[in-house]
């Protein structure tokens, strides 16, 4: 039955088939001398070939913002003396009046908190508040998205002013003795109202305000003028009661004396000594400047806030304490100047 | 590391729920009034490959499977199989860049079966099921002519050597471990390890990381001498195909008609898939085999128990491959051992503000699933091992040269070594002298 | 199903540039123009502490110069991405998200993505920002709501 393999191998059929596909060689073939040198190539380290994430990312591919933050953490002269927790899911705004009462807005309400920390009244609002202003007459001005609402000293909603238009995003109300300035980030304009609610006109800046995001703050001073934070230009500008720009200060810089990022400061408050408190986003920090706009010091650096801290609305007490609205902690944080330290 | 600032201005098409907690989230902020009439362009968003092309892939797979079956079973044409192999390598490999392939699709199916939230597209199910169906009908024709991973190895197998059978079988057992392990890891969400360690996909993309390119190149180099090393010793899908191929309706046979025992095909198979004729076992060896069979049958539950225990014991290590478990362990480690360097993942987790307790809880639940899953996987592997041992006790006699249906890749190599014509005609020089005289 | 980055979860760690199976990565920076502040001083574009705001290479944050700046009108600028140059490191995204409006963000570009069964970047993403999306809605774009 069997054919001699030798005969078979010599047959034309076998010859033909041996061209392709090849016939397997014996196992010993791999041990022949010419392949011994290749053996190490077979050893390929497979496991552990994937380094931990990030270890193979060149430094030039990443933006080290932590390093920039650290520079603003070296602060002195201010200490946190306490916090006032707020009864809001999402706090939004903060204001203090000459009466010493703190107003805070959030959700769809405003609360008034007395100097000793007790809630005096709570007002329910028809829509979400955006910002707050405390008038010298004891009234509270609530900025809604498109218009301003007025609360009387007892916390009753007594009036609502005209809408500033469909595109309006009201981010600040600055009540002065004779005028109320309303900053509208949507239109990049500051509207001038009489306390009665009559829209008088708009501030006329030499070049348009630049508000790339819904942060555009204003604060009335005692001389009848108003300070406006022009965030896109990274500076604070003063306008007289007539609406002319008189002066401005501020420069862009990551370093504490300047304003970091593309649009800062996001909030400011006037201090009793004529100086300023400012807050910034990006590198969350609160700083003070003197009345002439020169840098005074850092009140609270990025280390004091969440990494992506939002809001940071500011207010000042007549004692000079600075109040910071911390949306993450849902509280007002109180900072006091240390005795004998700094300006 | 910090999370991206949840945006103050934006409403998101999909992430509204995540934004709800932020007071600033849902605000619209108008664009400046551009006096020059500038209007911002739309964000360009090139679409992915159209669904129609995916169905075309499925159609191409079906056509290729039928063609392979026809070439192997009807035409018995090695040349045809080589051409089909090259075409499928070009299309499924280099043009479609190897994704999704039936080998990888078994993980999608496994995960889809366990996790109801993981949707498996119809095309992926088709890719998984069609080669299996083809194996049930015609044997492993997918391996022969369609699989791009097989194709790239088949085309470099120019100097195949024959590996001793025991070594080949032992290495082949790796496939079962790989299959069960990858199903376990995929179905419990630890990742798709078959895809991660696909050795040839980097070649298909003409792009890849150095270790994987070296691994692929090494396998191809080995594959010059040890034909199709990935298919025979690693491919997990091949195990499934092998199981179904055992039951196949039609299967390639070395000889088209009656085997004449010429022995020409003995060394023709580079995959060690040809079974040689053997005399029927003697009465004594049958008796020995019967006793061994019974002994192993009794031993089987012990084996399975041991496998389950081994699986259970290795579940902490396997669970560590799941990123949630790994993250939970890293956070625990950083808390317990001061000075442990943080990882990007642990930094990101802390910055996200998610609750640590919830993470540990989730990790514990996953760890529990891994304990159960690993024990089951270990038991199943032990069962496979036991069945293999049981099969070894029964060595039936065999009259002719036959293919091992589980191992045969239907590559059609052996066909050319068989001198018997399809009609059963035998060239005269192969007839034994007795038959030759008889023929004359 | 296709892979995509949820920009809300993205932390701009840089792994998208290095972990993709493709070189350069299939992840690229995209720009939601409607969200952009069109700032003169863009922190996605300029190195920190740039004093003279011109387009000189020494001022640019992008390691491959893929972010382009064009004057529209005082004081607004348009920023566009030269996609063939971008390799998805997300450095500009980090600057824009931290300091600006976050109009720059990373997305898997589906004209490049080979749609691996297991995305190699997703596997490495420390923030779990990769998600599977239906192929009919392959992008998670930042956009202004219409109403």
Notes on the structure:
The complex is a heterotrimer of chains A (343), B (440) and C (147). With 343 residues, chain A is mostly beta strands. Chain A has one domain (65-337): Neuraminidase (6 Propeller). Chain A is 6% helix and 36% strand. Chain A contains four helices and 24 strands. Chain A has helices at residues 5-9, 12-17, 33-36, 65-70; strands at residues 78-85, 91-96, 102-106, 109-113, 119-124, 131-134, 140-143, 148-151, 157-160, 170-175, 180-184, 189-193, 199-202, 218-220, 226-230, 235-239, 245-249, 267-270, 276-280, 285-289, 295-300, 311-316, 322-326, 331-337. In chain A, the strands form six sheets. Chain A has a four-stranded antiparallel β-sheet with strand order 1-24-23-22, with no helix packed on it. A four-stranded antiparallel β-sheet of chain A has the order 2-3-4-5, with no helix packed on it. In chain A, strands 6-7-8-9 form a four-stranded antiparallel β-sheet, with no helix packed on it. In chain A, strand 14 and strand 15 form a beta hairpin. Chain B is mostly helical and 440 residues long. Chain B has two domains: 53-277 and 401-421, no CATH class; 284-392, no CATH class. A two-stranded antiparallel ribbon of chain B has the order 2-3. Chain B is globular. Chain C is an alpha+beta fold and 147 residues long. Chain C has one domain. Chain C contains three helices and seven strands. Chain C has helices at residues 15-19, 91-99, 120-124, and strands at residues 2-5, 27-31, 67-73, 76-81, 104-108, 130-133, 142-143. In chain C, strands 1-6 form a two-stranded antiparallel sheet. In chain C, strands 2-5 form a two-stranded antiparallel sheet. Chain C has a two-stranded antiparallel ribbon with strand order 3-4. The longest helix of chain C has 9 residues, at 91-99. Chain C is elongated and about 45 Å long. The mean pLDDT of chain C is 90. Chains in contact: A-B, A-C, B-C.
What are the defining features of this structure?
heterotrimer; A: 343 residues; mainly beta; Neuraminidase; 24 strands; C: 147 residues; alpha+beta; two-stranded antiparallel ribbon; 3 helices; 13% helix
């Amino acid at each position: 039955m069997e054919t001699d393999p030798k005969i078979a191998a010599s047959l034309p059929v076998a010859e033909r088939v041996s061209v392709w596909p090849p016939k397997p060689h014996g196992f010993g073939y791999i041990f022949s001398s010419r392949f011994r040198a290749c053996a190490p190539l077979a050893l390929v380290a497979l496991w552990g070939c994937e380094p931990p994430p990030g270890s193979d990312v060149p430094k030039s591919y990443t933006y080290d913002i932590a390093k920039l933050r650290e520079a603003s953490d070296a602060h002195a002269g201010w200490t946190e003396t306490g916090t006032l927790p707020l009864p809001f899911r999402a706090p939004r705004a903060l204001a203090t009046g000459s009466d010493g009462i703190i107003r805070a807005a959030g959700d769809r309400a405003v609360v008034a908190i007395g100097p000793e920390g007790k809630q005096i009244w709570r007002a329910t609002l028809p829509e979400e508040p955006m910002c707050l202003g405390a008038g010298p007459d004891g009234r509270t001005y609530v900025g809604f998205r498109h218009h301003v609402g007025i609360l009387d000293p007892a916390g009753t909603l007594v009036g609502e002013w005209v809408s500033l238009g469909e595109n309006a995003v009201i981010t600040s109300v600055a009540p002065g003795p004779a005028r109320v300035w309303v900053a509208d980030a949507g239109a990049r304009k500051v509207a001038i109202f009489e306390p009665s609610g009559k829209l008088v006109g708009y501030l006329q800046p030499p070049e348009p305000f630049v508000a790339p995001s819904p942060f555009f703050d204003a604060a009335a001073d005692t001389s009848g003028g108003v300070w406006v934070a022009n965030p896109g230009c990274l500076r604070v500008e003063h306008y007289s009661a007539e609406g002319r720009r008189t002066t401005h200060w501020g420069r862009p810089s990551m370093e504490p004396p300047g304003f970091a990022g593309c649009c800062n400061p996001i909030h400011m408050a006037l201090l009793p000594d004529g100086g300023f408190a400012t807050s910034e986003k990006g590198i969350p920090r609160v700083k003070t400047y003197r009345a002439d706009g020169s840098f005074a010091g850092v009140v609270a650096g990025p280390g004091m806030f969440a990494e992506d801290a939002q809001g940071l609305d500011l207010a000042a007490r007549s004692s000079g304490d600075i109040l910071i609205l911390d949306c993450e902690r849902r509280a007002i944080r109180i900072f006091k100047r240390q005795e004998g330290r700094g300006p | 590391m910090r999370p991206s600032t949840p945006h103050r201005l934006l409403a998101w098409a999909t992430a509204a729920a995540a934004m709800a907690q932020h007071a600033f989230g849902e605000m619209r902020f108008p664009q400046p009034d551009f006096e020059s009439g500038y209007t911002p362009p739309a964000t360009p968003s090139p679409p992915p490959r159209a669904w129609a092309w995916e169905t075309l892939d499925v159609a191409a797979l079906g056509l290729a499977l039928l063609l392979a079956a026809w070439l192997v079973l009807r035409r018995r044409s090695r040349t045809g199989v080589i051409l089909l192999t090259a075409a499928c390598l070009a299309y499924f490999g280099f043009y479609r860049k190897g994704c999704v392939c039936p080998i990888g699709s078994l993980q999608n199916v496994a995960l889809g079966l366990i996790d109801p939230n993981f949707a498996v597209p119809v095309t992926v199910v088709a890719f998984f099921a069609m080669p299996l169906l083809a194996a049930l009908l015609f044997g492993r024709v997918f391996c022969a002519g369609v699989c791009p991973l097989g194709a790239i190895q088949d085309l470099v197998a120019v100097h195949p050597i024959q590996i001793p059978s025991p070594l080949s079988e032992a290495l082949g057992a790796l496939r079962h471990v790989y299959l069960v392990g990858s199903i376990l890891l995929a179905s419990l969400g630890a990742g798709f390890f078959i895809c991660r360690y696909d050795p040839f996909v980097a070649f298909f993309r003409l792009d890849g990381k150095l270790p994987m390119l070296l691994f692929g190149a090494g396998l191809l180099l080995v594959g010059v001498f040890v034909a199709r090393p990935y298919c025979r010793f690693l491919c997990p899908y091949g195990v499934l195909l092998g199981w179904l191929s055992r039951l196949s309706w039609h299967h390639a046979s070395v000889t088209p008609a009656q085997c004449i025992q010429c022995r020409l095909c003995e060394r023709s198979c580079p995959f060690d898939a040809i079974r040689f004729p053997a005399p029927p076992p003697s009465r004594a060896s049958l008796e020995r085999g019967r006793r061994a069979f019974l002994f192993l049958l009794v031993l089987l539950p012990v084996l399975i128990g041991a496998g389950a225990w081994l699986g259970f014991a290795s579940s902490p290590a396997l669970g560590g491959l799941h990123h949630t478990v790994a993250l939970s362990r890293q956070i625990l480690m950083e808390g317990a051992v001061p000075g442990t360097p943080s990882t990007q993942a642990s930094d990101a987790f802390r910055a996200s503000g998610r609750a640590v307790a919830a993470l540990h809880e989730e990790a514990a639940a996953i760890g529990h699933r891994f304990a159960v899953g690993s024990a089951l996987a270990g038991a199943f592997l032990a069962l496979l091992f036991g069945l293999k041992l049981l099969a070894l006790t029964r060595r039936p006699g065999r009259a002719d040269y036959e293919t091992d249906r589980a191992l045969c890749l239907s590559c059609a190599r052996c066909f050319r070594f068989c001198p018997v014509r399809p009609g059963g005609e035998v060239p005269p020089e192969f007839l034994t002298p007795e038959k030759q005289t008889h023929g004359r | 199903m296709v892979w995509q980055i949820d920009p809300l979860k993205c932390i701009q760690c840089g792994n998208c540039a290095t972990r993709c199976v493709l070189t350069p990565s299939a992840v690229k920076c995209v720009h939601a123009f409607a969200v952009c502040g069109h700032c003169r001083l863009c922190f996605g574009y300029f190195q920190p502490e740039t004093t003279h705001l011109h387009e000189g290479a020494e001022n640019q944050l992008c390691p491959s110069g893929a972010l382009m700046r064009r004057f529209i009108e005082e004081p607004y600028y348009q920023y566009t991405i030269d996609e063939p140059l971008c390799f998805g490191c997300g450095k500009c995204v980090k600057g824009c998200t931290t300091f600006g409006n976050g109009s720059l963000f990373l997305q898997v570009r589906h004209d490049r993505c080979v749609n691996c069964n297991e995305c190699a970047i997703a596997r490495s993403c420390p923030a779990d920002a990769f998600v599977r999306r239906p192929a009919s809605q392959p992008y998670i774009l930042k956009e202004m709501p219409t109403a």
